[in-house]
Amino acid sequence: MYPATSDTRNQAAMNFTLAVYAAPHASQSAATALRFAQALLRQGHQLYRVFFYCDGVHNGSSLATPPQDETDLLPAWQSLQAEHGLDLVVCIAAAQRRGVLSEAEAKRLERPAANLAPGFELAGLGQLADAVAHSDRLVTFGS
Amino acid sequence: MGKRSLALCRQAPYGNALAREGLEAVLAASALEQAPDLLFSGDGVFQLLPGQEPDGIGQKNLQRNLQALPIFDIERAYVCEHSLSQRGLSLDDLATGGPALHPVSDIGKLISSYDTVLSF
Fold first, then answer.
1. What span, in angstroms and rounded, lies between the C-alpha atoms of A12 and B32?
2. Which of A142, B28, B50, B77 would disulfide-bridge B38, Cβ 3.0–4.6 Å?
3. Helix, strand, or coil here: A119?
4. Confidence of residue B73 (pLDDT cuts 50, 70, 90)
């Protein structure tokens, strides 16, 4: 593991948005996005939004159950969200294609179950454009 | 606002959902009057080839999305010359029915002139 580098505030704090295109457990990218988020918050930067797009919407599924000896990204995202009040946005169009639905969407689309995890919300692509406009840096994972 | 953003389109049109979802993100941003400029590089240049018939593999034609771009005032798109020549293509082989295509020789210089890059 790397040594802890907490509170190295020698640089001006910046506002970040992360775009996550990768599903968890499919490539390293989703885990790297989480670690990047943890690192930038630890260093005193702001995280304006995490936007989950394409296969990245699977990060918001509450149904993934990796083996016990593998890292489960979902509770790590959720605890980071609770601690910092993060805006974890799952693209609604990409999520519908891939079967990540909130209770309201499952009901509206007449599907048998909902699986959007607590701490995440569904929203449109406008939230990505908004994040681009309001962030100092956009960092993309898994393209 | 004043921030300039660039959408980098690098995927062939039908092998990966990112090609379609990238253009959808571009259209959504454009509808909010935050239209990015577009740069097609790598296999993304294949999105610009005319005569695509994706019906045969059960896909929708991605060029419809390109053709919608001028509605949102995206009148031009950049194309990486190096990516074209690597693939045995020239600008004359391309047609989108959408934005006019401008060849770029130094895409690094182009990319560095933007505040934000949306990478697809």
1. 30
2. B77
3. coil
4. confident
Q: Residue A143 has what pLDDT?
A: 78
Q: Which residues contact A68 (CB under 8 A, 6 or more apart)?
A: none
Per-residue pLDDT reduced to its tens digit, A101-125:
999 999 999 999 999 999 999 999 9
Cβ pair A132, B5 in contact under 8 A? yes
A93 within a domain of the structure (yes/no) = yes
Indicate which CATH number applies to the domain containing B86.
3.40.1260.10
C-beta atoms surrounding B2 within 10 Å: 5
User: Would A122 be classed as within a structural domain?
Assistant: yes
Name the 3-class secondary structure at B60: coil
Helix H or strand E segment including A139: strand A137-141
Residue B42: strand, helix, or coil: helix
Name the CA dihedral angle for A78, A30, A73, A110, rounded to a multiple of 10 degrees.
70
Instruction: Give chain A's domain count.
Output: 1
Show the domain range for B57.
5-119
- Does B25 sit within 8 Å of A125, measured CB to CB? yes
ipTM of predicted assembly, 2 dp: 0.91
| For residue A95, pLDDT beyond 50 | yes
Choose the closest CB to A133 out of B28, B34, B120: B34
The tokens of A59 are what? 């990060």
Domain range for A54 = 16-63+70-141
Residue of A nearest to B30 (CA): A129
> What is the reported pTM?
0.92
**How close does chain B come to A73, measured CA to CA in Å?**
23
